[in-house]
UniProtKB/TrEMBL annotation:
Residues of the M23ase beta-sheet core domain: 508-606
Gene Ontology molecular-function annotations: metal ion binding; metalloendopeptidase activity
PANTHER family: CELL DIVISION PROTEIN YTFB, PEPTIDASE-RELATED
Gene source species: Rhizobium grahamii CCGE 502
Protein name in the entry: Transmembrane peptidase
Amino acid sequence: MMTEKMMIRSFGNEPPLLADGRRAPDRREVSLRWLSGTFLTGITSSVLMGVALFAALDGRQQLAIPAEAYATINADTHADDTDVTRGGRLIASAIAAKPSDRKIMEVSTVVHEGDKEVVRRQPFARVKMTLAANHVATEDYPSFNPLTIFAADEPDAQPAVRTGQIYGSDVESEVSLKTVAYPTTKSDLQVAAGLTLDEIEENVRSNGSVLTDGAAQVAALYYVDPRRFSNDDNDVDLATGLTARVLEQNMTVSAPESITPQTEEFADDIIPVRQDTSITKAMADSGYPEPQAKGVSGYLSPLIGSDELSKGDVLRIGILQRGEQAKIIRVSVYRGTRHLVTVALDDHDRFVAGREPPQIDAVTTAFDDNSTSVPSNQNLPRVYDGIYRAALSYGMTKDMTALIIKLLASSVDFQAELRPTDTLEAFFSVADSSGQATEDSELLYVNARFGDTQTTFYRFQDPEDGSIDYFDQDGKSIRQFLLRNPVPNGIFKSGFGMRRHPILGFARMHTGVDWAAPRGTAIIAVGNGTVEKAGWDSGGYGNQTIVRHANGYESSYNHQSAIAKGVVPGAKVRQGQVIGWVGTTGESTGPHLHYEMIVNGTKVDPLRVRLPGGKSLKGGALAKFEDERQRIDALLGNQPPPQVASK
């Protein structure tokens, strides 16, 4: 057992050892020395941090004066925006827009006015918008609301569009055309007498010289013997200048190959390097998959001695496109305009060192000051905000932008963050050369690219019923036939199938899906159709509306608090139209919409059933749409280049 005396002995009770005759330290003296050292250390640290901060601010004495901070904030930022998220930037980085992507064109269009067709020149604007650029909206735009997107009212289709159709040929002034039926029985016009043989011979003598163009014969005279008119020395010899076509040896003249979606097309992608970075990051920031970028870097790095690119370098990537598949077949690196190295695919699909490809202007103008610089890895706005800001800054109206939003709603997530490569191209009529759209302006063409998804559609008026809609390149409507959710603001609560009934208490087939939402939330029609029933249902559905659509489809909306005015049996409804409001009438435990879809009399799962596409043009309407689409593509330069045979 350890006693107190043994413990004292173990710790030791000898006085401290002193050297050089020093005395034992005074406790107060030690405290003063520690306080002095701590104070001096604090002063030194403060001075060093101040010097470092002063150097980082380039000599300025403030982080940012209010005027500087306000100048960097987008003009459309509202003062009442108080939502701040962790990691968000208080002041967004500025990205310059590219003003050269706006072009005003004078286009000849034909408009039907009564029994006449009027051809006149009208100004049109073609804009190519990089949505991630720092666009400043010229006016306020509505905040994001999915219900507003689908339920936005559109003007009723007019018998004739205001802008008209692309005429296809230029006219100097306004021209009126009137088409009348060819008289098959009798005509008020007098018929001239037929030509005599002497008159025919005189026409051949006078017009024979224009039947040839150099060495090419532009008309045939199978019914005339050319030697008949060449007896006199003063007569025209029709055989003069006609020569046979001489072909080079081993040369074959073949018909042009038709262009299909699977036709191979080559393109050069130019990536300017604006700051020191790696090959992998430069390609990844431009939209290439990271594994593909790493593979290219692995081939280039040994040839240039590093996997890093310097500021001012240009990366030139040759791509072979076939349908939806893109394949890199060549990569070149330029230091400024001087070629450094090129690798290309060989016959075994392996990258090997290659010769410098033919020079193109895109390499020398890669750092054009007018180009849009979109840095990566920064907080970009939502897709919805990016479309509105860009469209309004390029002269489009809010109604036209809302129409684009509605047409893209089925394929684009508007709440997602923009990517640097997201673009939107539009072609629309304007008032004058200023490029500003008005209420009478009409949207003719849109080409939107969001990530890997590209959506293209054209405006067309169906000659059969006069309706105006937007169709893809194959003549299929861009709109969905039926939406799957009639309550865009609702929350999914219960699916289709067997379940325990919340009121009856036993297992029962749930023949629809439930969308929960506060009482009074708007319900929209999932598609165009005719109201078949609108009123009270005694079977437990409460206020019920049934809409009959095309091809045997029906949609049923139940437990509504009220049915919209005008929604009565026999009434026509449009997709997105508000037809009622969420409630809890009938056998219901809370405010929600019980939505059912019926196909040929059978109730099916609205979330799983395969829905048909929208309206598709056929026959003569499809042929006229093809003509209109080709005219628009020709104006915008979207036609594929013709292929020319070579030896």
